[in-house]
From TrEMBL:
One of its GO terms (cellular component) is cytoplasm. Residues 1-10 have a biased composition (Basic residues). Keywords: Amino-acid biosynthesis, Cytoplasm, Hydrolase, Magnesium, Metal-binding, Methionine biosynthesis, Nucleus. This is Enolase-phosphatase E1. It comes from Branchiostoma floridae (Florida lancelet). The gene is LOC118423945. Its cofactor is Mg(2+).
């Protein structure tokens, strides 16, 4: 059997991302009728390596220190309570670490025991790259200090800002939908390598609206932005997110970026694919710029 047929049978694309990204793929008319562009972050606006090699390791190496320093604070206790609640829901899962009850008045021995359990619980959740709100809220709170002190700068692909500006100039709105908490999203774009980009976005959605693999989440987003799903274009690197967004009636396009998981032949056949936002850029003419506010087709 040929390599290609074998890969198709196994449902794996091998090096196809590179081969296919260099070849033709149909994205014509993708922006037609679109008045809202909804963007994923990791693997779409931002390299996966930034999340996996900078953001997540920061949490792993600072979680104990963060808990030690903020233990008495309401926000920290709320984060711990949310992790405890999530762990109870996960109690049947392999290797789950439960978080014992605690108060800020506990003796030192109890505090240390609970703190270690929280650290282990966070690491267990992160080992599985779980997208649960409790973990994402804590991560967002931890990254706050890292961004504000300049230890971390949000990475954004160079083709992202020019394309967004073109969409805005042609009367479209841009929203973010990421598993990272809304606070984490605002930090990434507020303290980005390209400066403060928050003014580009009309709003942000996270897992408090629902998981990205569930169709209902996309229906909720469409309702929240007051737009028919058919007029929303969702860009993501993950097929498990593309599928439910399409089921909800949105237009969907996959993004291929360096380091993203390879797409299968079937994915290439089923979805439009871009490797840079510049493929969806609007060349704004001076006339169109003067009539801002009108959605272009
Ligand atoms: C908002 S930055 C942190 C990204 C993150 O925590 C994550 O899980 C990535 O999720 P995405 O939905 O952007 O792929
Ligand atoms: Mg992604």
């Amino acid at each position: 059997m040929s390599d290609r047929r074998l890969r198709r049978r196994q449902g794996t694309a091998g090096t196809d991302n590179k081969r296919r990204a260099d070849g033709p793929h149909d994205i014509s008319g993708l922006l037609d009728g679109v008045s809202v562009v909804l963007l994923d972050i990791e693997g779409t606006t931002t390299p996966i390596t930034f999340v996996k090699d900078e953001l997540f390791p920061y949490v792993r190496s600072h979680v104990r220190q963060h808990l030690e320093e903020h233990w008495q604070e309401e926000e920290c206790q709320e984060d711990i309570a949310a992790l405890r609640k999530q762990a109870k829901e996960d109690k049947e899962m392999d290797g789950v670490v439960l978080v014992p009850e605690c108060t800020t008045d506990d003796d030192e021995e109890t505090r240390k025991k609970v703190l270690s359990a929280v650290v282990d619980n966070v690491l267990w959740n992160m080992d599985a790259d779980r997208k649960v709100t409790a973990l994402k809220q804590l991560q967002g709170h931890m990254w706050r200090a890292a961004y504000q002190t300049g230890k971390i700068k949000g990475e954004v692909y160079p083709d992202v800002v020019p394309a967004i500006r073109g969409w805005l100039e042609t009367g479209r709105q841009v929203y973010i939908y990421s598993s990272g908490s809304v606070e984490a999203q605002k930090l990434l774009f507020g303290f980005s390598s390209e400066g403060d980009l928050l003014e580009l976005f009309s709003g942000h959605f996270d897992t408090t609206t629902g998981l990205k693999v569930e169709t209902e989440s996309y229906r909720r987003i469409a309702k929240a932005v007051g737009c028919d799903p058919a007029n929303i274009l969702f860009l993501t690197d993950v097929v498990r997110e593309a599928k439910p967004s399409r089921e909800a009636g949105m237009k969907t396009c996959l993004t291929v970026r360096p380091g993203n998981a390879p797409l299968t032949e079937e994915d290439w056949a089923n979805y439009p694919v871009i490797k840079s936002f510049s493929e969806l850029a609007c060349n704004v003419s001076p006339t169109k710029m003067r009539s801002r506010g009108k959605a272009a087709t």
